[in-house]
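Table S2 (continued). Query chain:
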Amino acid sequence: MEPLLQPVYFGPPARRLFGVHHAPSEPALGCVLMCPPLLNEHFRSYRFFSQVASQLAGAGLACLRFDYLGTGDSDGGDDQFNPAECNLDIALAAGELRRRNEGAPLILMAIRGSALFAHRQAEDLGASALWLWQPVLDGAGYVRELEKRDRFERGSRYRYPLLRGMAAANAQDLMGFALSARFRSELSAYSIDRQPGSVRTAVLAHQEDPAMQLAADARLELPLSVTAWSDELDLASLIPLRDARDALEALVSDIPRWTTHG
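Corresponding output:
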């Protein structure tokens, strides 16, 4: 049987979040909470990580993909997407995933900017493992990088061939999103310590990514064809799932390692 894919809304009325649950055909060996990348990276990689979730579900791991408040199909506008509150959404999503897969060990898969939040929560949520996919290590550096890209794009003659100067934007806008005044300062406050944590950790990244120097129980190399999307503003093609299969199969081939505490 194929894994069952089900859209869901969850959370309290004031914080309704949208997610997609990928259920395996048999009782789950574990459950994977997929914490998404941020801003433009989220919608550009959406299809790819949907495919990743389906592959994991096919291997017996229930998966929940979700949108933070103010993003995607969750409630709220751009200005309600605040990094300091992402921990609330991760906790709500973890609770929903556990409710649907009672007794299954929890794994956090944190993609890009979400790694800044999830690595702090893994122990508090009782996760058995933390999988960091191309993790952002320094929130302040990431904000500067996004601001640089934003300026470049607003001045691009390719995007705005008839415009002289820069495309207009409000002071808080970033990468096409009308964010709150506190977004930059909140995201800048996060970073990832290179020292080992108490939760088993796997890092999935290109071999030259600084994240591969993190203390981890496993480091799984992703080819450039899989990782380049995070540095491209215009994707040349879809991110190829087939090129990520070796890393994914390495994870699921050792499920007991990632689903056992201690």
